[in-house]
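Journal club prep, notes for RB
We'll compare a predicted complex against what the paper describes. Inputs for the adenosine-5'-diphosphate case:
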Amino acid sequence: MLPETVASQVAAGEVIERPASVAKELVENSIDAGARKIDILVRRGGVSLLRVIDDGCGMDRDDALLSLERHATSKIRSASDLEAVATLGFRGEALPSIASVSRFRLTTREKDAVAGTDIVVNGGKIGVVRDGGEAAGTQVEVRSLFYNLPARRKFLRSENTESRNLEHQLHLLAIGHPEIGFTLVREDRILFQLPPTANLVDRLRDLYGPELVDKLLTVEREASAAVRVRGFIGRAGLSRSARDQQLLFVNGRAVENAVLSAALREGYHTALMKGQYPVTFLFIDVEPGAVDVNVHPAKREVRFRDPGGVREAVVRAIQRTLESDRAGWQEKFRAPDPVVGGARAVVPQIAVPVAAPPELPQLETEFALRGQAARIDLPNRSETDGPKRAIEVNRPYLEPTQEVQRTQQFQIIGVLNKLYVLMENAEGLVLVDQHAAHERILFEELRRRMEEQGVPSQKLLLPQTFDLPPKDSEWIARNMSILQKMGIGIEEFGPNTFKIDSLPQFVRALDGVQFIQAVIDELKSASDSSSPLRLGEDMIAKTVCRHAVKANDPLRYPEIEKLIQDLLECDLPYCCPHGRPTMIQISHAELEKKFGRKV
Ligand code: ADP
Ligand code: MG
């Protein structure tokens, strides 16, 4: 049998990794104790001092002593209670663990008690127990963390890094509990002071400022589902190169979860550049029985009973939310109020129907695959056809009908460098990347086709059979149905042998086998996901969109008009299928600053 103190130190190894973990456990205890106000004070990265003061329910002397015993908890009684844990804590390990690796002091008083209790513990050994505790609530003071565990102490990072970790941890707790006031003081400086608030957005504003909040979209809660998703996510175009602001909460608990991270990536799929992470403050609520919170000693991870359902709900919520931003985005293209008699009257204005087109326009796209399978070029149509474009989307011009459709004016100034369409709106200058815009338009067009009737395919003159290494065969077999939806007529023809007899109409390949090989190479690595839709999207994005209008393809004025108009009708107009922005706004204020009119 290990002595009690050693056992606690071993347990501390899992639960208490660094000062941030101490802060997490103590603040979670305060939240569980019903605190309305929690003050945290740290010195030297939390290593020399970490103090948490709450105004929660407090403890009487017996409970205070008991709380320092291993496996003592007031939150569950039996293993079956784990099915419905409503508190953040339940393991009964934090206090004894922390007390075993620090100089520890617990001061607590119940609201109506005459006297409180003050307990001092050093390295797990109870020193003093006496009357004490002025205010109702609990104060835990942790000094000299890991003083008796030099090996652990060596693993700590610099004070600044530990402080930053700790601050991040407190952000998570504060965002998870806007109804509680939080103060963090570091070396006598207030880092934040957050008043209690009824809603999340105020808390986010207090923490990150209005600039970030302005870039967030509200995820509307879905009433009926078994998985409820709510919170805020960044608009397309808002991203970070690290996960710091990709926050996820499950039943109020900040978690890391592979299923959820994958769902975020999928939801943002074409709205995020490679290597970037979205900004999310997303709350996923499920029945307590539908999630296992007891899979990580620091309760940082959870496991869902129905990961597929959760994932789907999150993907859907994100996609719906991003698409809901479309109207606000279209607003960006609105021309400024016309100046009567001014120069603006000279520039033609175009009416754009805002409502969706009544029926799907016909898409006529043609590609020729020449030479290497991966290179698809425009077939040289008649040179007199006007400017060369890789793809033509023949969409009939839509006449807006009076009652149902609002019209929008946009104002094109010209084209810069044969690539950027310059436009004017109320805020200033808008630049549209015509290539990115065209990619987005095509992408959505093809995706719609894929989802609906499937991409039309074209028979090859001669069906071809080919062999693949087992891994590629497995990939093809697994994704057969989506390949067929994409218009690739492919079937198994023996072990590791396949037959291909048709290709998507928009690809005019000379060599079907080369084409399919290129598709496999590109998609195999790109798509770790099991979602066929995502795979299809990847496929379209990779094989088709690369061949949209290239920079330096001069477009004539009506073509530019049409491009902007088609872009405005897209679900996610603000970025190309690879997540790059389609447009940039330069405000009047920025221009004024650059010209030194304003400082
Ligand atoms: P757990 O939170 O898993 O129950 P802890 O070791 O963190 O285990 O805490 C042990 C017990 O001490 C808790 O169950 C709770 O009853 C009591 N406790 C801890 N911190 C506080 C606090 N700030 N206010 C009131 N009670 C507390
Ligand atoms: Mg606890």
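Talking point for the session: Residues 25, 29-30, 33, 54, 56-59, 67, 72-75, 89-95, 138 surround adenosine-5'-diphosphate (ligand 1) (CB under 6 Å).
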